[in-house]
Amino acid sequence: MLQFDIKHLKFLIAAADHGSFRKAAAALKVQESAISRRIRDIEDQIGASLFLRRPDGISLTLAGQRFLHRVRQALAHLREGAHEVATIGRAEHGHIKVGLFSTLASGFLSALFRRYDEEHAGVHVDFVEGEATDHAKAIRELDLDVAFVIGNSVWPECDAALLWSERIFAALPEDHDLAGEAELIWDQLADQDFIVRDTGPGRQIKDYIVRRVHEIDADADVEIQRVGRSNILNLVALGRGITLVSESESAIIVPRVAYRPVHGEWVPFSAVWNPRNDNPAFRTLLSLARSMARPAGVAGGPPP
Length: 304
Fold this sequence. Notes:
Helices cover about 40% and strands about 25% of the residues. It has helices spanning about 5-20, 20-30, 30-45, 60-90, 105-120, 130-140, 185-190, 200-215, 230-235, 280-290, and strands at about 50-55, 55-60, 95-100, 125-130, 145-150, 160-175, 195, 220-225, 245, 255-275.
C-alpha cells in the first residue's frame, strides 16, 4: 500500500511551482537535500520519475504532471474537510433535536432560541412536542439532544439543570367573576370547577390543585379532558371550567379567555440531556441556556 506524508507531498508541489529543488527549499526553509531525497522516495514508491533533472532546473514528466494534479486535488479535499469539521466543532453548522414540554410563545425558551438563531444561524433545529417520560427515553437513546421539561426531576442516565421558573396563571372565561381581579389567591379559587388535560402536565396540575385546595380545608372539583393545550383553553372560553397555565402559556391568545396570576405560585423548568452526547451544536445551546438561566423565584408550583 502506498503511503505518503502530506509534508513531503507539499515538497513535490513546491518543487513543481518553483522549477527548482533549491528554490523550493528556500521557500520552505528546509535543506535542498531534504526536498530531493523525499521526492526520490515518492518516485521509488510509485515506480515512476516525476521530474526531469537538468543543470538549469527541473520540469515535470508526463507521469509527474498527472500525479501532481491528483495530489493538488487530494490536498484540496483535505483542506475542505478540515474546514467543514472545524465549523461543525464551532457549531457554525449542525443539527439539534429539541424536546418541548413548554411553549415557544414567549418567555425563556422564546428568548433562548431567538438568541441561538442569531449566533448560530447555520444550525438546523428540530422541535418535538411530547411527554417528559418520552423525551427522557429518546434522550437516553440519543434520539433527542435536549428536552426542556417542567419540574426538576432526576431522570435515569440523564443530566439535568434547573434553568428558569415561571409564575402560574389561572385561565378563566373573560366574563368570569374573578376576571376583574389583578391577582388571585387560593381562597378565591377553592370553589371553582377546574379542567385539565390528560396529556402534558395535566395530571401533575390536578394533583397540585387538589393539594393546594386541601391546604385551605376545601375540596377541589377537577375534571380531566382528553384534549390538547389549545382545546383545553377553548373549553375554558366556553365556560366549562378554569385551568392553570404557566406564564409563557399565558401569551397564547384565545378569544374570551382571560389570564390572571396566582399569588406567590411559581413552576420550575429544567433542561435534560444525555451526558454522552458530544454534539457540538447541542453543547453550545446548553452553554447559552445556562448563561441565560434565571431559576430564582421558585416557590411552590407543581411537584417534579
